[in-house]
Design brief:
about 190 residues; mainly alpha; 9 helices; elongated
């Protein structure tokens, strides 16, 4: 049995990913995940509300890190630069967990219910980013638009990174936001 709560949590996450890969999400139970991790099902529910949440662990920490990066950006930084800075703050964490991120992505992609849950989590992340941008003085509608655009760009970056093991997440992020900035500068005023 794991001694620490964090060790149990990691073992539960790995057991869930392994079982989801072997049997599929729908065919796996929380009891099987707990047994594979060497803990009780009760311990499972101390850490995760249901069998979906084991895949989305870390979302609250990601939201907090992105919001903090937005808040700490220079006051005169434009919204796109602020968002680039925020997503850059997430790069080391994601790179350190590449194997888990790849496995998680495969499981979510294979399940319509999990894709729906992923979209709901992204919506929550959008709200967090928009609120942080509003706190910097950006009007609500514009803050929501900027958060939406930033998240779409980030999702594209992560997808390309997962598709190419040799790709640098930092380089992909830089290129995506450079392309986005170029696209924005090509838009004629008033359109």
């Amino acid at each position: 049995m794991p001694r620490s709560g964090e060790d149990a949590r990691r073992r539960l996450q790995q057991a869930a990913l392994d079982l989801y890969a072997e049997r599929g999400f729908d065919a796996t139970t929380t009891a099987e995940i707990a047994a594979r991790a060497g803990v009780t099902e009760r311990t499972y529910f101390r850490h995760f509300a249901d069998k979906r949440e084991v895949l989305f662990d870390g979302e609250a920490a990601l939201q907090a890190a992105l919001a903090a990066a937005v808040s700490s950006a220079p006051d005169d930084a434009p919204p796109l630069a602020v968002l680039r800075r925020a997503f850059r703050a997430a790069v080391p964490t994601l790179e350190a967990a590449r194997t888990v991120t790849e496995a998680r992505h495969r499981v979510i992609s294979a399940s319509p219910a999990l894709r729906e849950r992923d979209l709901a989590k992204r919506q929550s992340l959008k709200s967090t980013l928009a609120a942080a941008l509003e706190d910097r003085g950006l009007p609500g509608r514009v803050a929501r638009l900027a958060a939406d655009v930033g998240l779409v760009a980030w999702a594209e970056v992560v997808d390309r990174w997962l598709d190419d093991p040799s790709a640098s997440l930092e380089a992909l992020l830089t290129r995506e936001f450079d392309d986005l900035a170029g696209l924005m500068s090509d838009v004629a005023p008033g359109r």
